[in-house]
Structure formats: structure tokens, C-alpha cells
Design goal:
The protein is mainly α. A hairpin with a 7-residue loop joins β2 and β3.
Length: 173
């Protein structure tokens, strides 16, 4: 049987991009750390596939992925409240992105802003009941599509988290 990258592969048979990347890397002698390149490519491809799947599902609830993650972060926070700057750090987004998402969610009544009691420069954001309701509906939708990891077993998900946790820790997260 021909390999997935073979030109004689059957019509309709998918060619694995990482198999092609391995072959190209070796053929072109692009560097000594092929495994790191392939790992990076694999993670970035998975990220894109997951994000595309998740965003399509959330769009049906008129919510963006950043908005969903912001609401999740608020729901899990003490008193369901955080400053906008702390939200930006938690979500790994630029403060302007957090502010724009906050504007969008506040306009829909999904959160409220209040002045920080001791820092005049800071604004606190709190999830509302409407925000919790939307978060529950959106979470159920994402649960149905296995949060962008369709077909992965619980053991595979756990192994993925463990592997990524080790790399994140080494990267300073």
C-alpha cells in the first residue's frame, strides 16, 4: 500500500502534513532539531483545528472564543470579579483585546463594570446572571463537540494535558 505522501496514493486519501514536513525537513537538511520543529507544527495545527471547531460552535450563540474564556475566568474567580488588566494577563491577550471583549459583553448585559475601590486607574468586571446562563449554554455546546478534541479518549486527553503541562512549566508558565 502506498504511503500517505506517495504520489500514487489513492484519490481522496489524505496526506498527513506532518509526514510531509518530516520528509521535507530531512531532505533539505533544515536543521538539527527536527523533533522540536515537528512538535511545534503539531501543536500549532491542533490549536488551529480546535479553535476553528470551537469558534464555529460558539458563533451559533453569538459569542467569540475570547468572550467565552473571559466569562469562564470570571465565573471561576473569587466573587466572580476581576480587573480588566488581570483578565488580559489570565487570557494571554493584549489589554485592549480584554477591554474590547468587556465592552461587547457589557453591552449585552453579560457582565458589569465597577470602579476598583482602591485603584482609580483600574476597573473591575463581574459576570451577571445572564452571563452565567450564556456560559452554561455555550459550555454545553462545547461539551457536545468535546471542546475541539473529537474522538480523543479521556486517557488521551489526560496524557495531552500532562505533556503540555510539562512544556508550559519549562517555558515559565
Amino acid at each position: 500500500m502506498p504511503s500517505p505522501t506517495s504520489k500514487t496514493a489513492k484519490a481522496g486519501q489524505r496526506s498527513d502534513p506532518l509526514t510531509r514536513a518530516h520528509k521535507y525537513w530531512r531532505g533539505e537538511h533544515l536543521g538539527i532539531d527536527e523533533d522540536s520543529f515537528i512538535a511545534m507544527t503539531s501543536v500549532l495545527r491542533l490549536h488551529r483545528l480546535m479553535t476553528t471547531n470551537i469558534e464555529a460552535e460558539l458563533k451559533r450563540h453569538d459569542i467569540k472564543l475570547t468572550d467565552f474564556m473571559l466569562l469562564v475566568t470570571l465565573e471561576m474567580s473569587d466573587n466572580h470579579t476581576r480587573s480588566v488588566s488581570r483578565l488580559a494577563k489570565s487570557l494571554l491577550v493584549h489589554p485592549t483585546t480584554a477591554t474590547v471583549a468587556t465592552d461587547r459583553l457589557e453591552a449585552r448585559g453579560l457582565l458589569v463594570r465597577t470602579p476598583h475601590p482602591s485603584d482609580r486607574r483600574a476597573t473591575l468586571v463581574t459576570i451577571t446572571e445572564e452571563g452565567r446562563d450564556l456560559l452554561q449554554r455555550a459550555s454545553a455546546v462545547l461539551d457536545a463537540v468535546e471542546y475541539g478534541l473529537p474522538g480523543a479518549s479521556p486517557a488521551e486527553r489526560a496524557a495531552l494535558v500532562d505533556a503540555i503541562d510539562a512544556v508550559r512549566a519549562a517555558a515559565g508558565d
